[in-house]
């Protein structure tokens, strides 16, 4: 069955055709490990995980790489110019009175813990910028040899005008960077030949010894943010590979810069399919640390939810369309997942199989095909969930529903195989509380109110069977 993906490079949904028949090279821009990743960040990583699973589900061998940025990402990126400001690692190190190396390890470990709580599958490799300094220096040298660089007082820059003139390629295909005018960013660097030019290597400030700095042919310093992804992706996946994933915020500068420096160095097309996840809003507004709503997995757990319930919430929206987070929406996802697990638990206790009629066999195959069509159609997880709930309401036998759910969960990643059978299901505290309230109401003869609570319990995926009131 064919896979279709929306390619940001062409701005159209296209049939996926890999460079090699049964193999796919895939790279995802991972976190800058100076703080905890937010639920907005993890929406993108979950989308990448779904794509990874869909490709494998369709029989591809996927060489999946994700980077961990632990140097070179400057704070000016938030203000419109990624070549200005402080290194995020250095700034956080000063704030916490630790070294940049300690900050990198602390938040890398935290990221991986949260990554696994969401049941995201490990890529073939996590790659760190600081482990690939030599690769980045060598890539800058290749660009220098081709005449695409120049030196300023603070670093080595990529010359976008010369790149366009000498290669015939247009810079900024993914965004509107070709429309940027002088002064459009937070400040003007008078040493830049063009406001679109960007740093490949930054010099260490004079009379300052950084935790993270390296010798280079141009002087002691550290790599620019963009060069790491080109160097590492091409090292492991080749000069041209299939898929590059990231958040839509990276379309403005980071990914166009990756394309320019990679194609400038190799003379080849860099990536065939660019897949971008849409923003996660909070209460219909922007998410931000200054707003106090840049929630983390820890915040989710402190409010009584699990990471897998958050994952279900992500699945309820299409990856490239805005999704609005509210606590009520997460509660709805929690209820839906609880109900789903409850049904699967009941299926586990019904192991007896019966001979299938032709009609039911057709239904089973139909549900399997409809689910596959949904996820293969640009990762349409909301449609896939709709197929699941339709299947669960059908008259096909419970053991076959269970088998289908185990197949579907290869994509959903909700750990449904870990659900215990109905005799071993642990009843959540909120359900126990409602059961107690209902029993009290029944003992007082308040049956109408008790019925309302019974309906609420049913929505949570549990059914109450009454005994006669004494």
Verbal overview:
The chain is α/β, with parallel strands linked by helices and 470 residues long. The chain has three domains: 4-277, HUPs (Rossmann fold, 3-Layer(aba) Sandwich); 297-424, Isoleucyl-tRNA Synthetase, Domain 1; 429-459. Helix content is 43%, strand content 13%. It is built from 15 helices and 13 strands. The protein has helices at residues 39-57, 88-96, 100-117, 133-145, 160-167, 225-237, 254-266, 297-302, 307-315, 327-348, 358-376, 381-392, 398-412, 429-443, 447-459; strands spanning 4-7, 12-15, 23-28, 61-68, 125-128, 149-152, 155-158, 198-203, 221-223, 241-247, 271-277, 280-282, 323-325. The strands form four sheets. The chain has a five-stranded parallel β-sheet with strand order 5-4-3-10-11, sandwiched between helices. The protein has a four-stranded antiparallel β-sheet with strand order 6-7-8-9. Helix 11 packs parallel to helix 13 and helix 14 (429-443) runs antiparallel to helix 15 (447-459). The longest helix is centred in the C-terminal third of the chain and has 22 residues, at 327-348.
């Amino acid at each position: 069955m064919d896979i279709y993906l929306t390619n940001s490079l062409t701005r159209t949904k296209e049939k996926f055709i890999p460079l090699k028949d049964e193999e796919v090279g895939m790279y995802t821009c991972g976190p800058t490990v100076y703080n905890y990743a937010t639920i907005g960040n993890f929406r993108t990583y979950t989308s990448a995980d779904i794509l990874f699973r869909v490709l494998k589900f369709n029989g591809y061998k996927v060489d999946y790489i994700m980077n961990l940025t632990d140097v070179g990402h400057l704070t000016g990126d938030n203000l419109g110019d990624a070549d200005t400001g402080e290194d995020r690692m250095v700034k956080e190190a000063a704030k916490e009175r630790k070294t940049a190396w300690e900050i990198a390890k602390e938040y890398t470990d935290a990221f991986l813990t949260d990554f696994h709580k969401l049941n995201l599958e490990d890529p073939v490799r996590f790659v760190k910028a600081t482990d690939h300094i030599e690769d980045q220096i060598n890539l800058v040298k290749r660009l220098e040899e081709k005449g695409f660089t120049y030196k300023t007082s603070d670093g080595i820059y990529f010359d976008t005008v010369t790149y366009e003139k000498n290669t015939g390629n247009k810079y900024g295909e993914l965004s509107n960077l070709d429309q940027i005018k002088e002064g459009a960013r937070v400040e003007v660097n008078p040493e830049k030949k063009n406001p679109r030019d960007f740093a490949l290597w930054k010099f260490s400030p004079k009379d300052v010894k950084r935790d993270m700095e390296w010798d280079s042919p141009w002087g002691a310093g550290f790599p620019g943010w963009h060069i790491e992804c080109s160097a590492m992706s091409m090292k492991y996946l080749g000069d041209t590979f299939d898929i590059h994933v990231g958040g839509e915020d990276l379309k403005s500068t980071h990914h166009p810069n990756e394309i320019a420096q990679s194609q400038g160095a190799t003379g080849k097309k860099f990536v065939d399919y660019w897949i971008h996840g849409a923003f996660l809003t909070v209460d219909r507004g922007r998410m931000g640390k200054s707003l106090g709503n840049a929630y983390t997995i820890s915040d989710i757990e402190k409010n009584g939810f699990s990471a897998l319930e958050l994952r279900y919430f992500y699945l309820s929206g299409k990856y490239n369309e805005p999704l609005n987070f509210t606590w009520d929406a997460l509660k709805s996802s929690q209820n839906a997942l609880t109900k789903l697990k409850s049904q699967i638990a009941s299926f586990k206790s019904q192991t007896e199989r019966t001979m299938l009629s032709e009609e039911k066999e057709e239904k089973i195959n139909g549900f399997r095909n409809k689910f596959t069509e949904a996820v293969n159609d640009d990762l349409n997880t909301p449609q896939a969930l709709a197929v699941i709930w339709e299947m669960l309401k059908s008259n096909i036998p419970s053991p076959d529903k269970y088998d289908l759910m185990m197949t579907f969960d290869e994509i959903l990643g909700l750990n449904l195989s870990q659900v215990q059978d109905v005799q071993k299901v642990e009843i959540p505290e909120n359900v126990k509380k409602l059961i107690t309230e209902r029993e009290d109401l029944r003992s007082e003869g308040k049956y109408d109110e008790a019925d309302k609570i019974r309906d609420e319990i049913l929505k949570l995926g549990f059914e109450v069977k009454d005994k006669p009131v004494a």
